[in-house]
Amino acid sequence: MESYVVIGAGQAGGRAVEALRANGFEGRIDLVGAETHLPYERPPLSKELLAGDDAPFELMHDAAWFEERNITLHLGTPVTAIDRAAKRIVVGESRSLAYGKLLLTTGGVVRQLDIAGINLDNVHYLRTIEESRAIGDMLKSDARIVVVGGGFIGLEIAASARKRGCSVTVLEAADRLMGRALPSEIGSVFAALHGASGVDVRLNTGIERIEGRDRVERVVTSSGEAIEADGVVVGVGIVPDTTLAAEAGLRVEDGIVVDEFCRTSDSSIYAAGDVTHHPNPLVGRRIRLESWQNAQNQAIAAAQNMHGADTPFEEIPWFWSDQFDVNLQMCGAPDGWDNLVTRGDLTARDGLLFQRQGEKIVGAIGLNRPRDMRFIKRMMTAGKTPTAAELADEAVGFRDLMK
Ligand SMILES: Cc1cc2nc3c(=O)[nH]c(=O)nc-3n(C[C@H](O)[C@H](O)[C@H](O)COP(=O)(O)OP(=O)(O)OC[C@H]3O[C@@H](n4cnc5c(N)ncnc54)[C@H](O)[C@@H]3O)c2cc1C
Asked: Domains in the chain and their CATH numbers?
């Protein structure tokens, strides 16, 4: 019986081993992860777990669940190399494990800032539960927190910190919030939301250095201003963790390059989750996503294909973010936002924005419209082509447009 090894015990790794067993694979499964925890999902780390809601830290499954399914766990165990010729992975200095097929779910690592003071106490990034807890410890009422980066993670941290009574400044080097993924029409709504909630949002403002004796005392911005601070959180994106794959000679290009079956350039090695650069026929190009949905569903697809399914993976990308009382959802991955149709009232945080390419919807953003977004995703998957007038008209139901 063949044995499968999964490297990376995050969300994608956890879902993949679950899917392998659910799809009837009875051989040996080893799940190897650098973190000391059983697999867990990260979205609560910047939301419930940080906002002081007393939300418990939940694992995807407990240890007994893995034991019952005969999945061998190697936690706190970074893999140092893949020997493709011998079909073995190397753990630490000398231990190795054989694989028949290998799945890489190594995710991403935070992009680091190379500035003076970055190693001072009370300066944090956010990717792991330990980092979330360390940030949570800083969020005492009245603490002065500077968040570097006005993307999704930075803004969720800012909202959580405000909920805890901190005074919060967000520094964003670009001229708008969440500008990497979203248009200025949405960035401005969130700038207003954060401003009205007491966050000091500084656009066109980078960070020059952090000052302090042992712990952070102040942040100096690109315009030379000093902002007194008790804590700093840096959220300036992630880079896909392709080190192992690249060293093993797999094709890497802003992520591990996989085909529609989640196979890398080595047919015995698959990859899934944030680390993949994959084709998406519904979007019409290759993309890399950093999203919960993709981590889950691509991992399931990879597991099924490892076990002989031969089913291409394709779905409309979907992402959400919660900030204050706004639930933002986005479908699609448009190249840009320039052919927009609005429905509802975005400034009142109750509306939808569509990006069309010809008649086709290639992107949709919903503010506090979770139900609509479910239908819109289905419409995009089915390739429906409603007119701009229909999309804009609240009287036209999305259920009807699906017909
Ligand atoms: C704070 C936060 C909030 C988020 N909120 C949302 C949200 O609201 N909505 C949304 O859609 N998405 C959200 N995301 C994104 C989502 O969590 C990620 O897309 C998802 O975690 C990706 O899963 P993954 O398994 O591919 O990678 P990861 O979660 O990064 O897991 C990869 C794992 O591989 C391990 N690893 C790496 N290299 C090795 C090695 N050599 N040996 C052994 N192990 C290794 C790592 O330690 C890690 O545990 C959020 C992410 C964060 C950090």
From this structure: 4-109+238-306 (3.50.50.60), 112-234 (3.50.50.60), 325-402 (3.30.390.30)
